[in-house]
Every structure is written in C-alpha cells, then in structure tokens.
Amino acid sequence: MSIVTAERPQAQRPQRQKLSVVDCDIHPGFSTPEEIHPFLPERWREHVKTFGGHYRQAFADTLSHPRMAPEVSRADAWPPKGPPGSDLEFMRAQHLDANGVAYGMLMPLNRGPGNQRNLGYGAALATAVNDWQIAKWVTPEPRLRASIVVTQEDPEAAIAEIEKRAGDERFAQIMLPPRSLEPLGRKRYWPIYEAAVAAKRPLALHVGGINGYPASAGGYPSYYIEEQHTNVQGMQALVTSLVLEGVFERFPQLRVVLVEGGIAWMPALKWRLDKHYKRLKAEVPHLKRLPSEYIHDHIWLTTQPLDEPDKDSDLAETFELVGCDRIMFSTDYPHWDFDDPRFVLSKLTLSPEKQQAILAGNAKALYGLK
Amino acid sequence: MAMPNSIFGHPAIDCDVHIAVPNTAALMPYLDAYWYDAFRSRGIERTSFTLTGDPPNTPLAARPDWRPKSGKPGSDLELLRSQALDGFGSSIAIANCLFGGMALHSEDLAAVMCKAVNDWVADTWLDKEPRLRASILVPQQSPELAVEEIERRAHDKRFVQITLLAMGNELLGRRSLWPIYEAAVRHNLPIGIHAGGLYHHPTLNGWGSYFLEDYVANAFAFENQVVSLVCEGAFAKFPELKVVLIESGVTWLPAGMWRLNKTWRGVRPEIPWVKQVPSELVRQHIRLTLQPFDEPEGSGRLERFVEQMQSDQLILFSTDFPHWHFDGKDALPLSPSSPLAPKILYQNALDTYPRLTEAKATAAFAPKEISP
Amino acid sequence: MDRHVVAKVADVPPGDRKLVTVKGRPIAVFNLKGEFFAIGDKCPHEAGSLCAGRIVGLAESDVPGDYRLTRAGEFIKCPWHGWEFDIRTGQSWCDPTGTRVRAYDAKIEPGAELNKGPYVAETFKVTVEDDYVVINL
Ligand code: FES
After folding, report:
1. Does domain B13-357 correspond to CATH entry 1.10.3730.10?
2. Homologous superfamily (CATH) for C3-136
3. By the 8 A CB rule, do A123 and A156 touch?
4. Testing the interface with B: which of A115, A181, A190, A222 to mutate, by most B Cβ within 10 A?
5. Residues ≥6 apart with Cβ < 8 Å to B299
6. Which of A124, B91, B258, C7 has a Cα at 20 to 30 A from A359?
7. Which residue on chain C is closest to B174 by alpha carbon?
8. In the predicted model, is pLDDT for residue B63 greater than 70?
9. Residue A318: CB partners within 8 Å, gap ≥ 6?
10. How many Cβ pairs closer than 8 A exist between chain A and C?
C-alpha cells in the first residue's frame, strides 16, 4: 500500500466548532460589466460607453501585471453564472454560511472610482457603486455592510458623498485607495478626514490604487510576484505619511483600517519610525508623541494574507508586537489569496480571548456591531 | 588571522563608514581636458551636488561629537582615524563616498564624476590610511559605463565592492543591469546597495513632505530590491554574486521573507528559475550592515533576527560613521560575549569580501607597523 | 485494508478528475491518459479542495527568461493559493521536502470482481463488463 505520509503535519484544524467571525474584506462583483450602468446618471452612462475609464497606466481594462488566476480569484469561487463574487446566493453558501460570517465588510474595487483621471466620472462612479452595494448586497443580506467609496482626488465630492451616507448605518466605513496621487497624509486630503470624523466612520484603506508612479522607489517591477509584494511597501509608506504629517495629532478621533496589507511588517516599521524620529524631531515639531503611539491608537490591521513564518511562534510574537487589540480577521473572498478562518485560528497560538478578539471582537468594537 | 582585538574583545571590520568629497572643485585634478574645461566654463566646479536625501546638517548626518569643526561630515581623515578606526579598534573600515554627481541625468557626466571620485578616494584616503578600503562608485544609469569604470578600477584591490543605490532608475534585478553583476563576479566584488537614490518618487505613494519620511522609506526600497534580485533570477544567473545592503535598517527583513516565501509558493510558475524558497536564496547571497539597527534599545532583536533568518552569517558590523544612530560606543546591540559577536564583528565580513583576505599581506592586518 | 470502488472508468475520462469519499475522507481521483491516481483532496496548506483546482503542467527553467512546460496535465494546482502537486505522487512542487498530500493506490479492476465500496449501489445501474476505479484504503 503506497500511502505517503505527510512529513509536515497537515494544518491542525479545530474540530468543527461553531465559527462566528467578522470578515473585514469581501469583494462584491458585477455580474456583467454593464451592471453598474443603471446606477449612473445618463450623462456618465453615455460617457462610460463612449470613453470608458481613463487611468494613469498603460491599460484601459486591466492592471499592468497579469495575475496568476483568472479574476484574481479562487478557482472554486465561480458561481454557475457570472464572475466570482457576483452572485449573492453562491457567496452565502460558499462563504457567509460555510465560514460562519456574522458580519462581512464589502470592499468594492469595481472600476476604481478613486483611480479615475476624470474626476467627474470618478465621483459619479463612487455614488453609483455605493447605491449598488445597498441595492444588490446589503438590502437582501443584512450580514453585509457597505463601504462609502469616495474619490480622494476630489475632496469636495468625497465629502458630499460621506455626508450623504452618514445617516445610513449600513455604511460601516469610508473607503479610498492608499496609492493616491500624493501620500495620504498630505494636507490636500485632510478635509476628507474631517468629514470622516464628523460621520464617525473609520477609513478603510484597501491595497491598490493607480497613481502613475512605478510600484517601487527603484522603478517598475517586472513580475506579478514583485508587484504583489509592493502592497506591503504601499502600506508602510501610507502609515509613515499619516503619522509624520500629524494627521492623528490634528484628528484625534480618526481611526484607520489597513486592508490586505498583511501585518508582519508593522513592528519593524514602528521601531524604525521611533528610532529616526528621535534624531529628526526638529523636522516634525507638530508631533507630540512617538510615532508608534499614534500607530497603536489609530491604526487597525486585517489578517489576510496571513503572514506565514516557518514557526507559528514567530507569528504569535508578531501579533503581540502589533497589538492583538488592533488586528481584525479578513478573508479577501473570493480572491485567490483567501484565508480560511479555521486555518487562521490554527496558526494563532494565542489565548482564546485574543483569538476571539481577532476573529470578531475587535471589529465589532470598531464598527459598533453587536 | 592576525587582527588585533577591537573594543568588543574581538577583531572588528567596520563595513560602512562615510567619507565625503569636500566640494566639486576637489575633483578637478581627475578630469581630462574636455571635462576640466567644461567644469570650469559651465561653473560645475562651483556647484554643490548635495543629494536631497543626504543633507549634511541634519542630526542624522553626523553625531554631535563626530561632526568636524568645519566642512562636511566625513571629510576629515584625522577624525575618521581617531573616532571610527581607533575609536572602536577596527582593523579595517570600508568607506562609502556617495558623491551626488552620480545622480546626474547625463550618464556621461555621471560617469565622469564617479571616475573622478574613485581616483580621488584612492589618492586622498586609501594611500594615506592602510586600514581603509573603498567601494567603486559607478553610474548606475548606464550599465555600460558602469562596467567600464569597474574594469578600470578593479585592479586596485583596495576597492572591495561596487556601490549601487537603493532607489535607482530601474529595479536592480533587471537584466539590463546584469553586465554590472557579471563584472562584479569576474572581479570578486560584492555589490553594495547603499541607502539613497537617484531621486524619483521615494515611495510608490509618491512624494511625501519630510526628509525623515524619505529616510524611513529607504527600508521599503531595500525590500523591493531584495525581491527584485531574487525574482528576476540574478542569483540564478550569477551563483557567485554577493549583495550587501548598506544602511538598510535590517529588522524588516524576516517579515519580508515570510511574505515573499508565501507568495512564491503560490505563483512560482511565473518565475520558474527560482527553485528554492526565496529566503534560502537570501541566506546565500544577501548580507546587511549592522547600523542603523532599527529596534527599541536593548530589545534583543539582533538575536531574534538571527533565529528568524536561520543564519548567523548575514550581519556585518558597521558604525555608519559619522551618522548618528547610537551614542558612545554602543555600536553592537549584543553582548560581546555572545557567540554571534565574532561572526558579526569580522568573520562574516571576511567571508563576504574576498578582497579583504586577498589583501592579507598589506598593512591592514598589522596596522601598528605602518604609519602613513 | 479494503478495496473501495469509487467510480466507473467512464466517469473519469482522460484529463479529468472526480471527488470521491472513502471512509469519510475526501479523495481526488485523476485520470492521466488512462492511468488512474488518487490523492487526498484537502490541500495541506489551508485545506482547499484540490479536486477543484486547475490541472496544469510543470513550469521549468534553466536560466532566467527561459520557460519550458513539461509533464503537461500531470499537476494539480490548488484552487486557492496555487500550490502545485504532482498528481502521480502527491508531492508538492514548491515545498518538496516539507509538504505532500497523501497519495492513494488507485487501480482499475474489472467490474465482475467487485462487490463492495461506496460505488456499489450504483453498480447495479451499469453493466458488469464495465471497469471500475478502485482505491485501496
Ligand atoms: S489551500 Fe492549497 S495552496 Fe493554500
């Protein structure tokens, strides 16, 4: 009998316990590219049919590094009809029910309103995507929460959109891309943060954005594997900018969620910021505390893609260094680098209380969910 | 190996000290007739090419007690001797001279600047201080001219590595730069990637506001370079290639490897020439200088780094003189009695820089016997 | 060790795969040009269902920039994070020393010799001349 035993033990999964998680990163999809059109005013519907999107990159319909899976998605996440993430029934069965999702945060990346060079189209698209989230997802499925998608390069429009949605509790947060035209700490974006504080919503910054800069300070990466890695550097630069510009000094109520950037880079960034801040304080006299203190008070991180050191104990140490009260579970469903909650649990050699906080508690507290 | 003990009770090789060209005019003796004339008639000799990323008056640029009374930090040989070499008892120090002229858009002019700087370094520093070694400055914008400069300088074994910057025009793994690596391997020269840049956007999010922001961002650029070198296959193509990250901050690396290993497991077919987990390639090919070592003081991260990277061969002692990263003699965030200390202080450097051993017979190993 | 009938040969045409359950274990059965192989369906990484993955060849290279596909159709790529497993051995390509999925012995046996296994109920619907895929477990 040729049974080959695994040398590395198979991932230990806790026995079928009843899972109840808050998933901070679910991507809803259009069933067809035209699905958004009815949500656009006539003027922009005509515009998109004639001109399409207009970006700071080579391609009109795709990103510059082809992904390793169609639609960046799990091969098993294709519903009977339409692309992954586009069918609520299928999402319910495959993900919400199967993985015990008590609440799921929608992170619509569709058409990237914040990446549009035509600001008028971007703003109309943001409004359309927000209406579409409510109509297609949140109304029929109360476990889901919408994100207020805004165009960060047009703060006026962004603020109008935030104010319009502020009274609707189904919108849990405000979403913009971290790779904006300038680092998000800069003054031109502050009015958006003021509106976020007034609306009592956290900012959710999901990796991505098309700002026209190569994906590293050293130039364009050739391969998807490299470009994917720069998501981390995008988050690092974002945190650096928000902290050093004094955004948290100015907006003490502002809370920021970093989505899909991973976690393990955060401790070393805190150490680096603190260390060099001590020498170069004179340049940023508006800061009153150590960078790491602002980070801990204002920034939340999501787990996916879960960092996988060879030793689980390294992961637990990293979580403790980041702060288990600031980490929230996410799956990235239906994308290919999805994390299964059972797997995440099996990797987190932390106390049950901390595991619970990460899987659900921290998100419930941040978003005011029951 | 007959090297005297440093203040840490073992011999020490300081793999990153900074020396500075006092002004552009100092390079005039090293120019040919055309460029001599051009420098004079265009006023280039009177131009400061101070890099945006390296302003000389910041507290980071020089420790208060390491700042010369006049002139740029790192421009005084006597201070380098008394403070960096004698100060720590280092037997050898590898100097980096990051003259801003290398960042010019004209690759010809950048090449002229690099050539002049290298000759000036040999005359002004290496001839006078036998404990000193240097790095070959090359115009990174032009692999062709960079190789030319390497070929011109390589015979001088006191030049022990080739300097590239962390933020260049192109990611360093790219094939267009491979002629530089071919030359490096041919001459037993590691590539030293130093913090700093030719100045494009300092991060993928664009231009921030502060020098501090850019300085912190160097670590991000280093991580992208490691990823690029591994994924483009530079190490598959040049199995002998060694790369030293200089002034990189160090502690970001383990987490970067966890991430890269994970992604590689899933998307490996995109880069089928990478046949081992990336962290294994990094262990084989990449080294890092110690300072600045980004950690909360006394947190023991150096030991944790070694455990997490599963190698005690990666870190090379450095002071980053005259930059201000620590006070007094606290250059080694480790107990000198740790078994890691001799590896970090000198053994790893000897393994990394073959030219340090080739120069065995020189005064460097008996510094007391020859005085300049 | 028991022999389990898990499929009719005709159910799993060449290049195809089928998810079966033996003693409660999900197993992916593959037909590679008429040869049958069976491996545990749960990916040793995060337990994605291997049977739902894409069947691919092996990407290899001698030098950077050189791409070669060998052993077309002999690897299954996990539907989630894309780890590749050798259908013949269960061996993981990205982590050959550390990770494998179980490989089971899958044979074709003539239908007439068989009398038990999860597929038995359905054998009544087919003719005895049909061949069955059998797993030893
Ligand atoms: S679950 Fe199979 S590769 Fe991750």
Report:
1. no
2. Rieske [2Fe-2S] iron-sulphur domain (2.102.10.10)
3. no
4. A222
5. none
6. B258
7. C64
8. yes
9. A263, A264, A266, A267, A307, A309, B255
10. 70
